[in-house]
C-alpha cells in the first residue's frame, strides 16, 4: 500500500517468551491531527480489541494500529497514547482513542509474564517503513499458531482496474486460529494432520485483519468492505471458533479523505458509491486469503513455553498435495 508503513518488534527471551508488537501507520503524518476514514468489523467478539466503539461511531481513526498479545493490550494502548500526546501539535489533546488488537499467543509464549513494554511499542513505531513487509514468525506473530502450524504475520495486495483504475487494497493478517488448512481448494491440513502430533492441533484462536485502501470510501462502505475479509478467511479453512476474537480493521489512505479539525470528509470528497464496490469486495477476499497463506509459508518453526513447539508448514509436502489435487 503506497504510503502505509509497518514496523515490528520481536521479543524472544529465554525459553518461554515468544511475542511482539506490529505497528501499522496509515500515513506518515500526525494521525491525531489528520485522521483517516475507518471502520471495524467484528466476525466473532471473543477478543479485546481496543478502540472499536469510537471508531465505528465516528467513522475514523486517530492513531496508528498496533497488534500484540491478549494480556499486553492495556500496556500497548498506554504507550500508544504517550506516543500521540508527545507529537508536536497535539499539546491540547485531552482524549485519544488508541487502536490495539490482539491474539492469544499463550501456547508458545508465557503470556502471564506480560513482557511487552512501552519500549517495544516505541521500537515498532520508529521501525515503521513503507514497502514490502517482513512476514512469518515476527512482531505480533512471533508466538502465534494457525491450523496447527506456526502462524504469524502475512500480507498481500491487489491493484484494481476498470472504473477503479489504480486503486489498491492491501491486507495484513495476524493468524492464530483453528480449522483445517485449505490451499486453492486442496485439503492440505486434512492430509498433513494425519501425521501431526495431537498437541499441535489447537482448539481455539483468533485473527486480526488490517485492511488499507486508497479508494475514496466513506466509513459505511469501508465497513462493508471489511466484512468481506471473513469470506477470504473462510476460503482457507478458518472456522471462527467459539473462543476466537476475529476482527477486521479498515482505513482509507486517500489524501482527500483525511479529516482535520477544519474539514469534513462528507463535503470535500466525491466518494465511490455502492455500485463501485464489487471489485473492491473481490480484492479484499483474495488478498485476505493470500495473506493467510503467506503468514504460514513464511513462518519458521518456533519452540517456546514449556517446550511447546509449533512446526512450520512443510512446504514440499504442501506442494505435493497441491500437485496431486491439480491445483498447481
Question: How would you sum up this structure, described in words?
Answer:
This protein is of the alpha+beta class. The protein has one domain (5-324): L-amino peptidase D-ALA esterase/amidase (4-Layer Sandwich), CATH 3.60.70.12. Helices cover 26% and strands 24% of the residues. The chain has helices at residues 52-58, 73-86, 118-126, 188-192, 219-227, 229-235, 265-268, 277-297, 315-324, and strands at 5-13, 17-25, 36-45, 60-61, 65-69, 99-103, 145-146, 149-150, 153-159, 168-176, 206-213, 245-252, 302-303, 309-310. The strands form 4 sheets. Strands 4-3-12-11-10-9 form a 6-stranded mixed beta sheet. It has a 4-stranded mixed beta sheet with strand order 1-2-5-6, with helices on one face. The chain has a two-stranded antiparallel sheet with strand order 7-8. The protein is globular, with a radius of gyration of 19 Å. It starts with a strand and ends with a helix. The model has no long low-confidence stretch (mean pLDDT 93).
Give me a quick take on this structure:
The protein is an alpha+beta fold.
Write the layout of secondary structure elements.
Layout lengths: L4 E9 L3 E9 L10 E10 L6 H7 L1 E2 L3 E5 L3 H14 L12 E5 L14 H9 L18 E2 L2 E2 L2 E7 L8 E9 L11 H5 L13 E8 L5 H9 L1 H7 L9 E8 L12 H4 L8 H21 L4 E2 L5 E2 L4 H10 L4
Helix pairs in contact: 2-3, 5-8, 6-8
Distance from N terminus to C terminus (CA atoms, Å) equals 28 Å
Q: Which shape, going by the Cα principal axes?
A: globular
Number of strands: 14
Number of helices: 9
CATH class annotation: Alpha Beta
Give the spatial strand order of the biggest sheet. Answer: 4-3-12-11-10-9
The H-level CATH homologous superfamily, spelled out, is L-amino peptidase D-ALA esterase/amidase
Amino acid at each position: 500500500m503506497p504510503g502505509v508503513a509497518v514496523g515490528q518488534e520481536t521479543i524472544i527471551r529465554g525459553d518461554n517468551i515468544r511475542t511482539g508488537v506490529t505497528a501499522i501507520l496509515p500515513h506518515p503524518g500526525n494521525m491525531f491531527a489528520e485522521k483517516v476514514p475507518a471502520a471495524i468489523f467484528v466476525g466473532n467478539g471473543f477478543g479485546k480489541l481496543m478502540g472499536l466503539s469510537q471508531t465505528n461511531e465516528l467513522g475514523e481513526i486517530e492513531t496508528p494500529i498496533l497488534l500484540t498479545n491478549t494480556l499486553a493490550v492495556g500496556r500497548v494502548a498506554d504507550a500508544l497514547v504517550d506516543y500521540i500526546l508527545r507529537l508536536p501539535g497535539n499539546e491540547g489533546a485531552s482524549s485519544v482513542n488508541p487502536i490495539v488488537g490482539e491474539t492469544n499467543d499463550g501456547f508458545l509464549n508465557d503470556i502471564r509474564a506480560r513482557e511487552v513494554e512501552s519500549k517495544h511499542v516505541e521500537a515498532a513505531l520508529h521501525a515503521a517503513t513503507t514497502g514490502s513487509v517482513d512476514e512469518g514468525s515476527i512482531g505480533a506473530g512471533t508466538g502465534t499458531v494457525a491450523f496447527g502450524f506456526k502462524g504469524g504475520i502475512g500480507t498481500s495486495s491487489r491493484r484494481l482496474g476498470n472504473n477503479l483504475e489504480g486503486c489498491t487494497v492491501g491486507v495484513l493478517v495476524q493468524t492464530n486460529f483453528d480449522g483445517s488448512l485449505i490451499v486453492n481448494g486442496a485439503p492440505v491440513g486434512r492430509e498433513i494432520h494425519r501425521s501431526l502430533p495431537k498437541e499441535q492441533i489447537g482448539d481455539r484462536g483468533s485473527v486480526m485483519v488490517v485492511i488499507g485502501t486508497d479508494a475514496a470510501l466513506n466509513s459505511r462502505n469501508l465497513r462493508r468492505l471489511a466484512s468481506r475479509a471473513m469470506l477470504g478467511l473462510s476460503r482457507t479453512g478458518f472456522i471462527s471458533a467459539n473462543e476466537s476474537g476475529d476482527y477486521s480493521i479498515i482505513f482509507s489512505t486517500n489524501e482527500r479523505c483525511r479529516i482535520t479539525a477544519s474539514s469534513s470528509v462528507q463535503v470535500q470528497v466525491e466518494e465511490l458509491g455502492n455500485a463501485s464496490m464489487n471489485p473492491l469486495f473481490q480484492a479484499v477476499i483474495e488478498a485476505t486469503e493470500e495473506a493467510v497463506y503467506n503468514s504460514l509459508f513464511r513462518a519458521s518453526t518456533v519452540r517456546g513455553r514449556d517446550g511447546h513447539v509449533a512446526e512450520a508448514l512443510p512446504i514440499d509436502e504442501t506442494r505435493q498435495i497441491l500437485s496431486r489435487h491439480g491445483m498447481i
